[in-house]
Structures are given as C-alpha cells and as structure tokens.
C-alpha cells in the first residue's frame, strides 16, 4: 500500500513549465522581470487612484510573490518528482519515473530525462540480478538431481560403488562445477561480453553425454529416449553452452510427456545451408501455434497435461534460445502431427562475431 500511495503521489503534478526558453537562468530571469513589471504597474495604478502607499506597497508585494510562486511550480515540479522517485527507488521500487514534458529542453528537463535513464538502468540491473538467482536455481537442479539419484542408489544397495559409477559421479561433479562458473558469469555474457570456447566435436557423442544424466533423473517415468543421430556428424561450438541448450530442450520434452511414452532425438546435416538440424519430439502433446513464440519468454510455463510433470520456473526454454542465438542458431517449434517438435538449427562451423 505504501508503494501504491507513493506512485499515485508521483503523478499529481500538472506540469506546465515555462517553455519559451531553453535555459533555466533565462526562465527565472523572465519570471522575475514579469513579476516586477506587474507589481510596478499595479502599484502605479493603485497610487494613481488614491490608494495609500502603506496599503498599495504590501498588496503589490503579495501579488508579486503569488505570481512568482504559481509560475515557479511549473519550473520546480520535476525536482519535487525526482525527490519522490528517489524515495521510491530507495524502497526498492525501480518502476517509477519522472513525468516531464518532452518539449522541455532547459536544465531541469535535461536532468529529469537523465534521471529517468538512470532509473531504467537500475531497473534493468535489478531485473538481471533477480534473473540470475532464478537461473542459478533452475540450472543447478539437473546435475544435483543426477548426483542425488546416483548416491541414493549406492546407499540403498541398488548399485555398487564400482569405478564406473564413481567415475559417473565425478563427471557430474565436474559438470556441476562448470555450470556454477558459467552461471556466475551470466551477467557479463548477457551484457555483450560473452566468450565461447569453440571446439570441434562429434554430435552423436555429445548428445549421448547430454542425455545420460537426464535418463538418470527421469527415474520412474519410464520414458523411452530414442536417438537417431548419424555417427559421422561433427560441428564446431562451445560444448558447455550447447549442453545448456540441449539439456533444457530434452528435459522439457520429458517433463511434458506422459509416463511410458517416447521422446525422439533426430539429427541430420543440412549440407545446402551448412547447418546441423536437430529435432526433439515428444509424442502426444501439441503446442498451439499462438503459444509457440511466447513459451520462449522468461518465466512463461507450458501447460501440463494428464500424466506429465508440472512445475518448473519457466526459464529453461528462454535459456535454450539464448544459447542457440549465442552460436548464431535458432530454436523454434515446428508443425508435426506426432507431437511437440522443437527444431534446433546450428551452424556446422562457428562464425566469429568480431
């Protein structure tokens, strides 16, 4: 309620500044000259009609002060707004702005516009901070869940602590460490300073490594992940960033597939366009054409049907699209009678942005 009352207070000023001059000094000078001229004319008029000077002079001063006060409100109203906006921002509300006539070009108008630009930058920085927290929480879930499942299986005696199983745990731990480093660096990358560790790798091997922890965390949902990926396809890219892309797309397909159904991962090389095209299809569910663009926005959650997992933060697909764009690729939902089909198109060879 406090913030709402403060917001309403920011809009009560009917600002009509002195727009004839582009300098505050000229505006104040004109105001003083006008007030003095009016006071002089009024005093002369009253004295001419026989008023006493002891009455005419005080009355003239009151009128001059009133004129100065009324017209000065239009000059100083943005300053009062900036005070209230600063108080609101100190309380954590970065959405408030100073209302200013766009045709006003004096120092106060310039200051108000600069103040609004500063408020926008602070709002953007605060949003990035909140997004960072949400991204970290979302992105850490998959490797942590995989580690938890493997350790619980060993503790319950379901699996033995063989060198192979311990190596798998070590691999997930390393991926977790890399993921933390990546997420902590997210703000710098989103600010345009993203750096990619470009490597040449085999797509089939990369997808096998990406799917393995997802199969573990899928648990008792009994999904059948089928992979149709030729062994001879290779490409260039940052494997850590691309793993973010494919992990989120495949995990989304698993989450929105009924238990016991199939998720297909099909990849092929488009030699005409020099790209690698991967389709991730979860059979049964469909995404309406009107929703296909909105689901890639942050915090937009897809609808869960019967037998599918609900919940989520609404960040996975947004992160996937960002990772694809970082490589000069795209992610989109295409028409497919079989179900929801996410098509990932990435350039086979990395194109430097320099």
UniProtKB/TrEMBL annotation:
It is found in: Cell membrane. It comes from the Bacteria. Its EC number is 2.7.13.3. The chain crosses the membrane at residues 26-47, 53-72. One of its GO terms (cellular component) is plasma membrane. It is a multi-pass membrane protein. InterPro entries: HAMP_dom (IPR003660), HATPase_C_sf (IPR036890), HATPase_dom (IPR003594), His_kinase_dom (IPR005467), HisK_dim/P_dom (IPR003661), HisK_dim/P_sf (IPR036097), HssS/ArlS-like (IPR050398), Sig_transdc_His_kin-like_C (IPR004358). Residues 135-350 form the Histidine kinase domain. GO terms for molecular function: ATP binding; phosphorelay sensor kinase activity. Pfam families: HAMP, HATPase_c, HisKA. Gene3D superfamilies: 1.10.287.130, 6.10.340.10, Histidine kinase-like ATPase, C-terminal domain. SUPFAM superfamilies: ATPase domain of HSP90 chaperone/DNA topoisomerase II/histidine kinase, HAMP domain-like, Homodimeric domain of signal transducing histidine kinase. Residues 73-127 form the HAMP domain. It catalyses: ATP + protein L-histidine = ADP + protein N-phospho-L-histidine. This is histidine kinase.
